[in-house]
Write a structure and sequence with these properties.
Blueprint lengths: L1 H10 L7 E5 L4 H12 L3 E6 L2 H15 L4 E5 L5 H14 L5 E4 L12 H23 L3 E6 L23 H23 L5 E7 L16 H11 L3 H4 L1 H8 L10 E3 L2 E3 L8 H15 L11
Helix pairs in contact: 1-9, 2-3, 4-5, 5-6, 6-10
The structure holds nicotinamide-adenine-dinucleotide.
Length: 299
């Protein structure tokens, strides 16, 4: 079933030889996406923080697809220095970039510092800004941001971005907030990039059995582990909508939209709030010490 659906997807696309960057491509959904793109002949850069796992994933994909153009480059999205170093090395090495898939995901926070906000939003935001000119010079090109239906429970307090929220379900809330930021980021990116040939999409992959839930509290694990294993999608199934948005022809009119199950879906009300999207963008730039954007703000 899965192969058939993917087959349909591939038949209707024209995939050029592309360079694809996939933060978080060493496991789960990211690895499954990278494998399918490599199978179609793409040049793929897996970008993740654990060098051993990254190299192993790249080796597995080369072995499974016969495509030698699958590389690993180190990237830790929780460190701005690492994001800058990755971007500099990438830009020096790769003349083209047609697809940036912001897929890395973190659910766990540390004291007083929101790791989900840093990794899931801010690190990806910085990476996208640093690679934007290369995406533009390679246009048509796409940015995909792997969000989640969990964005619906997100509540962004703009004055406290980056601080973990209070309350008994702080970790879950923190993750949902970062996923709302993903939806708003894709929306604002698309608006600012209108007419450049670069389009942006947010994607919910479904509930997928991956390492993402490794920090599930011990007391919940007897329920969660079998639920995840037997009821959730496989990583290959979770990759479907990401691959659809990466490769389907004719998606330009949907730039900025949120996709699930290979079709655009209305995000929650806060996820459609353009003023919030603009404020998040401007505050993210300030937090990162970036000059106001190269791309035009939208009125
Ligand atoms: N699994 C699900 O049910 C589900 C549901 C909705 C959305 N998502 C989203 O899908 C994406 C992929 O998650 P997954 O389920 O494949 O989980 P996963 O844990 O298998 O993959 C996450 C990847 O992110 C990488 N990563 C984490 N922190 C990083 C950092 N600091 N720097 C660089 N890379 C880092 C990890 O190395 C890993 O490769 C995430 O954005 C997640 O929020 C997952």
């Amino acid at each position: 079933m899965m192969g058939h659906l993917l087959g349909l997807c591939w038949e209707s696309v024209s995939l050029p030889p592309i360079a694809e960057v996939s933060p978080g491509g060493s496991s789960g959904i990211g690895e499954a996406v990278a494998r399918e793109l490599a199978r179609c002949g793409a040049r793929v850069v897996l970008a993740t923080r654990n060098a051993v796992r990254g190299e192993e994933a790249a080796w597995r994909i080369r072995r499974d697809t016969g495509n030698p153009e699958v590389l690993f480059m180190p990237l830790d999205l929780s460190s701005l220095r690492s994001v800058h170093a990755f971007a500099a090395a990438f830009l020096q090495q790769e003349p083209n970039l047609h697809l940036l898939i912001n897929n890395a995901g973190e659910q766990h926070s540390t004291d007083g510092f929101s790791l989900p906000f840093q990794v899931n939003h801010l690190g990806h935001f910085l990476l996208t800004q640093l690679l934007l000119q290369r995406l533009q010079s390679s246009a048509p090109s796409r940015v995909l941001i792997v969000a989640s239906s969990a964005h619906q429970a997100g509540r962004l307090c703009m004055a406290k971005l980056g601080q973990p929220p209070p309350g008994p379900f702080a970790a879950f809330q923190d993750y949902c907030n970062s996923k709302l930021a993903n939806v708003l980021h894709a929306r604002q990116l698309a608006a600012r990039l209108q007419g450049t040939g670069v389009t942006a999409y947010a994607v919910h992959p479904g509930f997928v059995h991956t390492q993402l839930f490794r920090h599930t509290p011990l007391w919940l694990q007897p329920l969660w582990t079998p639920l995840s294993r037997f009821c959730f999608r496989s990583a290959a199934e979770g990759a479907r909508t990401v691959l659809f948005c990466a490769t389907q022809d004719g998606l330009q009119p949907f730039s900025g939209c949120y996709f699930a199950d290979c079709r655009p879906l209305q995000p929650c009300a806060q996820g459609r709030d353009d003023a919030a999207a603009r404020e998040l963008w401007e505050r993210s730039e300030r937090l990162l010490g970036l000059q106001p954007s190269l791309c035009t703000p939208v009125e």
